[in-house]
Write a structure and sequence with these properties.
By secondary structure, the chain is of the alpha/beta class. It has helices spanning 9-21, 43-56, 73-79, 94-106, 122-130, 141-164, 169-178, and strands at 25-29, 62-66, 84-89, 110-115. The protein has 2 domains: 9-119, HUPs (Rossmann fold), CATH 3.40.50.620; 125-178, no CATH class. A two-stranded parallel ribbon has the order 1-2. A two-stranded parallel ribbon has the order 3-4. Helix 2 packs antiparallel against helix 6 and helix 6 packs antiparallel against helix 7. The model has no long low-confidence stretch (mean pLDDT 80).
Length: 181
């Protein structure tokens, strides 16, 4: 479970490992209330990108679920007859994860953690994108396409704003060059 905003190569590596260890891997895309309003991509966009990515990689035992904001993952896991819950963990999330593990145990679900020793971070990828850094090596092509679409829409909004404010052609050319258009 995670927000997968965006889904990156670290997530994919974890799914690849889990798909070899379990009959079915459920990927729950959560709507994190603590990150409300800060999503870059809609959960459905990520769900589609994840499904296309795992299909491209030949992984057949992945089910991707956009988790309802009203159903706890523990309840959903129990309904789907999941006996194990696997999460990536970062050191700064340890306390939260201990509480979550306790909640899962109430439902009879074992929680396992993969240390997030990966160089990939959704937050860092979004930051790099906003600073016009190359993120193509950190995400798969389906997710990269979403970033390109986002970049084009940001570019369009900038152009509209500058046109309405009377920006000259040189300023607009500079924006286009910075955004690689």
């Amino acid at each position: 479970m995670g927000t997968f905003d965006p889904f990156h190569n670290g997530h994919l590596m974890m799914i690849e490992k889990l798909s070899k260890e379990f009959d079915v891997v459920y990927v729950f895309i959560a709507k994190n209330y603590l990150k409300f309003g800060k999503r870059m991509f809609k959960p459905e966009q990520m769900r589609q990108a994840i499904l296309k990515t795992v299909k491209e990689k030949g992984i057949k035992n992945v089910v991707c679920v956009e988790k309802s904001q009203f159903l706890p993952c523990s309840y959903l896991s129990k309904k789907l007859q999941c006996k194990n819950f696997v999460r990536g963990i970062k050191p700064e999330d340890a306390l939260f994860e201990l509480v979550l593990r306790k909640v899962h145990s109430i439902f009879g679900i074992k929680t396992f953690y993969y240390p997030s020793g990966s160089v990939f971070s959704s937050r860092k990828i979004k930051e790099d994108f906003k600073n016009n850094k190359d993120i193509s090596k950190m995400v798969r092509k389906e997710v990269f396409k979403l970033f390109q679409e986002k970049q084009q829409s940001v570019h369009f909004v900038e152009m509209q704003k500058n046109l309405s404010s009377g920006a000259d052609d040189k300023a607009l050319t500079k924006i286009c060059d910075a955004r690689k258009f």
